[in-house]
Amino acid sequence: MSSTPHPLDDARTQLAEAIQFLGFDDGMRRMLETARKEVTVAIPLRRDDGTMELHIGHRVQHNISRGPAKGGIRYSPNVDLNEVRALAMWMTWKCALLDLPYGGAKGGVQVDPLALSTRELERLTRRYTSELIPLIGPGKDIPAPDMGTDEQTMAWMMDTYSVAMGHTVLGTVTGKPVNLGGSQGRAAATSRGIVYTTLNAMESVGLKPSQTTAIVQGFGKVGRGAARFLHEAGVKVLAVADVYSTIRNDKGIDIPALEAFVDETGTVKGFPGADPIPPSELFAIPCDVVVPAAIEGVITEQTAPMIDAKLIVEGANGPTTPTADAILEDKGILVVPDILANAGGVIVSYFEWVQANQSYWWTENEVNERLRARMDRAWDEVTAFSRDHGLSLRTAATTMAVKRVAEAHVSRGLYP
Ligand SMILES: NC(=O)C1=CN([C@@H]2O[C@H](COP(=O)(O)OP(=O)(O)OC[C@H]3O[C@@H](n4cnc5c(N)ncnc54)[C@H](OP(=O)(O)O)[C@@H]3O)[C@@H](O)[C@H]2O)C=CC1
Ligand SMILES: O=C(O)CCC(=O)C(=O)O
Question: Does pTM surpass 0.80?
């Protein structure tokens, strides 16, 4: 699907633009583009039928200048070390942009989680976590869910780490179940943040929710919530896609009905309230807002020319390649970058970590209000920087974040 060699190339291209603007020297460039620590582990898995499989897992800590490393864990057959490196780098910029006291990390296991039973997933997760124990912990590196993982995965990780420490350590991971030290509002936080930012971006281009149409790619933890909150805001969602199907209804999809259908069937495929279309037609649907909320590298030099929209709000990490960015800019389409648009998840992960470390829990309203305040502030800061310096929102956001990370690095002392 991607027309570029790899998301790591995209991440490095974006970093290079920020560094050029900031005028950093080659040493700083190398420091910022290179992960501080990378671990690759082999995870033997005994399947329920007694056979043995081996899965490869990674954890990459891209940067820790501003605080402990932070970022999700991905389970997918497509995971590879360079992808994890790119995702870890984007986490560093996201945390810095939102002024969270964290560096950036990401983890991944090359596995199809849908092909495993719950017991197999638990064994795999516990073994992967055991391998990471020297690396992770509330003051070192705090994992969270990403594609293919969820609250249950985080509960197993927290338990495995806690058993090894001899006591419960709730701040080990975030995105845990609420009954086990999770935060109110974390599950929906990424999607909520995307929609807060979408509404800000819509206002900036003069779109009113009741006159706005959208399409959403991905109907998992992020895409599904984004579709729901857009629908609740009055935006008409014309099409959604998961791996199995892309569906379209130009009158607007009834999102609550689609959610009920997906709860029963596990996919949008066959939903009676919309028509199936070829996946390749998704981005060609004329609409106001495109929300890619699945995987990297889907908006490319092939797909960008067909997009007929005013805004792209990146729910996924790295969905737009640098070449596509240039095409979209020429077409006058405003791209709200991932490190800004999908930061709601890590913001509420930060709130969860703070609550867990203090054993003092906030209400869902408190969480959502503080989330909104941080998302709105970041939107104002990035749009102002973009205007003041004539940069795209992506370059503005990356530049602001890279500058903060470099400043923290320098403040810690140049001659350690
Ligand atoms: N979870 C979080 O808190 C955060 C996630 N993100 C990013 O958001 C994106 C989605 O993550 P998340 O929702 O957590 O992951 P999930 O695993 O919960 O969901 C992924 C969704 O994407 C769909 N999908 C995968 N490949 C394709 C494809 N080629 N075409 C259409 N749909 C596809 C899946 O379909 P199916 O259901 O059929 O498998 C699923 O609906 C990722 O880029 C992730 O890094 C960013 C910030 C925070
Ligand atoms: O909640 C977190 O710590 C990280 C979420 C994540 O992986 C992301 O924002 O891409």
Answer: yes
